[in-house]
Design a protein that fits this description.
Blueprint: E1 3-10, E2 13-20, H1 25-36, E3 43-46, E4 72-77, H2 174-179, E5 207-208, H3 209-218, E6 265-266, E7 272-273, E8 277-280, H4 283-295, E9 303-313, E10 319-328, E11 332-334, E12 339-341, H5 347-356, E13 360-368, H6 377-389, E14 391-393, E15 399-401, E16 404-410, E17 416-423, H7 425-432, E18 436-437, E19 445-447, E20 459-461, E21 464-465, E22 468-469, E23 475-481, H8 506-515, H9 521-524, H10 528-537, H11 540-552, H12 558-565
């Protein structure tokens, strides 16, 4: 019998299946059900993404159906599961392996700790001693027999026991081990940002900002170190306002010249981006946000601020990844057309709690009904305002932002998925300098009408002056997705959400703590929304003390435990 490795693409991501060519389609469906949780009755398996080449005949063998080793299958759900909100990563986003705490490689690497076992072996992970942190396919000193002399013979880069194998030691000679770059902590078959050179994603529409700067420096002309040329410096900051106090004439409106008049805004698509990928590490947060929206029939749109952190993304040259750990929904009123934010007196407390946990605002997320455009003119302007608010100074002195916009909507097939964007630096400058105006058409940006004694720049699109133009000029695409096995910062994400129809109460705190009473107290408190509510119910200083225990994984003082237990 020939063993087959099949790749399964689903709305939630990708999976790896092992089967025999003599297995039937029905047995394959059972394996899929065990691995991804979709019952066979709701499975439609196709050979193509469009779903036109469907596999049929439950008693037919995989060989008879034309499947071979490495075949790619697409799972199309039908029935009730089709309406379940899921992450739908874009096709060119690489598969995120189920990394464990013992993995030392990046998401494109692999080792015995994260190379997924067959579905029938998945439960073996529960049988390891509690001290183990690797996957079920690996071994370590905690789960091998005591006194095993072979434990000392494992290669230095391996993290498993002597009875297991990984890409670091499987058929690897000592010479190959020596060739691994000194900065790397993995073996020669894995990759990390230190050695990832030619395996980057090739289909990205935009370069990372650091890559853009590096490519400019390569073209830099020879000159003394204290001098600079156009390739040495970052992009010039764009200004579209009248330069004040021009010495060559009387102040505007009595005079103007080429040196002080606003620069012409020639619309151009930005070739770089400041964030390459946004990852929903805490998938439960995303699903809760979307689930509440769908529970109201999608008729009341919702908006939230995403909190998380930034990290290096090894899938792009000098790439940046925004990792989402929590979504805070401020007070708001929603209808079919959008969301209107209300005054939020807790805004400062939420930011302080996030900061104490080592998190920050990384973007905003909102829902929308199906539509035939990416972002509306109003949404583009709102994104520009947020990006201006959260700009920081780059080491070159150039102001940059990493604040991402995510829109969640349902496509024509009923799938709910996020699309991520940023707006260009030029859009930020035009919004900052009060050049853009209110538009009644979501598909058109407009220049505001000049008031008396106001001088606005000329906007050029496709070589001609214009007062209205397509918002897509400003859009910068950001890839999005979720790991197959999230490793979120928070232990829990199921406490009652703030600013919804039903507000959390002290009774919710008592029920929540009682639900997880078998856990250490700092783990019972490891929920972002619980900490936000405790800041309101108690006080911000007490909540910050609890945040430090959660972040540092240290015991909570007995008086505080007694205080919370008395609720």
């Amino acid at each position: 019998m020939t063993k087959l490795i099949l790749r399964l693409h689903t709305r939630a991501g990708r999976a790896r299946l092992e089967a025999e060519e003599t297995d039937t389609l029905s047995s394959l469906q059972e394996k899929i059900a065990a691995q991804v949780g979709v019952p066979p009755s709701e499975q439609v398996i196709a050979k193509n993404e469009a779903g036109t080449d469907v596999l049929s005949g439950g008693s037919k063998t995989l060989r008879a159906l034309g499947l071979a080793n490495g075949s790619i299958l697409h799972l199309i759900q039908r029935g009730p599961a089709a309406s379940v909100p899921t992450i739908h990563p874009t096709a060119h986003v690489p598969v995120q392996r189920q990394l464990t705490a013992k993995c030392t490689h990046g998401p494109t690497g692999a080792c015995a700790n994260c190379m997924g076992p067959a579905a029938e072996d998945a439960n073996k992970d529960e049988k390891k001693p509690s001290r183990c942190t690797h996957g079920p396919a690996a071994k370590c000193a905690n789960c091998i027999e005591d006194g095993d002399a072979k434990a000392k013979e494992v290669k230095g880069h391996c993290t498993h026991g002597p009875n297991a194998k990984c890409p670091n030691c499987l058929g690897v000679s000592d010479e190959q081990m020596k060739e691994t770059k000194s900065a790397c902590t993995h073996g020669p078959h894995a990759r990390c940002p230190n050695c990832l050179e030619d395996n980057f994603i090739k289909s990205a529409k935009h370069k990372s900002f650091e890559q853009y700067l590096a490519e400019k420096r390569v073209r830099c002309a020879d000159h003394p170190a204290e001098e600079h040329c156009v390739n040495c410096v970052p992009p010039r900051e764009q200004r579209y306002t009248l330069k004040p106090n021009c010495p060559y004439h009387k102040p505007w409106p009595h005079g103007v010249c080429n040196k002080c008049m606003p620069a012409t805004a020639t619309l151009a698509r930005q070739e770089y981006r400041h964030v390459d990928y946004i990852q929903f590490m805490n998938l439960q947060e995303f699903n809760n946000f979307v689930g509440y929206w769908t529970s109201m029939g999608m008729t009341q749109q919702r908006m939230g601020f995403m909190y998380g952190y930034y990290s290096e993304d090894p899938n792009y040259p000098d790439g940046v990844r925004a990792v989402v750990e929590a979504i805070y929904e401020p007070p708001q009123l929603g209808d079919t057309s959008g969301v209107r934010l209300l005054a939020d007196r807790r805004k400062g407390d939420v930011d302080r709690i996030a900061e104490e946990l080592g998190l920050e605002k990384v973007g905003w997320i909102f829902t929308s009904l199906p539509r035939d455009y990416f972002l509306s003119s109003q949404e583009v302007r709102e994104a520009a305002r947020f990006q201006n608010e959260f700009s920081v100074e780059h080491p070159t002195g150039y102001m940059v932002t990493k604040f991402v916009t995510v829109v969640v909507k349902q496509d024509t097939e009923g799938h709910i998925s996020p699309d991520a964007y940023m707006v260009s630096d030029q859009c930020q400058a035009l919004e900052r300098d009060n050049v853009l105006g209110e538009s009644d058409n979501p598909k058109l940006m407009v220049e505001r009408k000049a008031e008396h004694a106001t001088l606005l720049p000329t906007i050029m699109a496709n070589g001609a002056p214009t007062e209205s133009f397509d918002p897509d000029w400003f859009l910068v695409n950001v890839n999005s997705g979720a790991p197959q096995k999230p490793r979120t910062f928070f232990k829990h994400s199921d406490f009652a959400r703030e600013n919804r129809r039903t507000q959390p109460s002290p009774a919710d705190v008592k029920a929540f703590l009682n639900k997880y009473r078998s856990e250490p107290f700092h783990e019972r408190l490891s929920d972002f929304h619980l900490l936000v509510y405790l800041a309101q119910m108690l006080d911000i200083d007490t909540a910050l003390v609890l945040c430090r225990s959660v972040a540092d994984k240290t015991p909570v003082s007995q008086p505080l435990q007694d205080l919370l237990g008395s609720l």
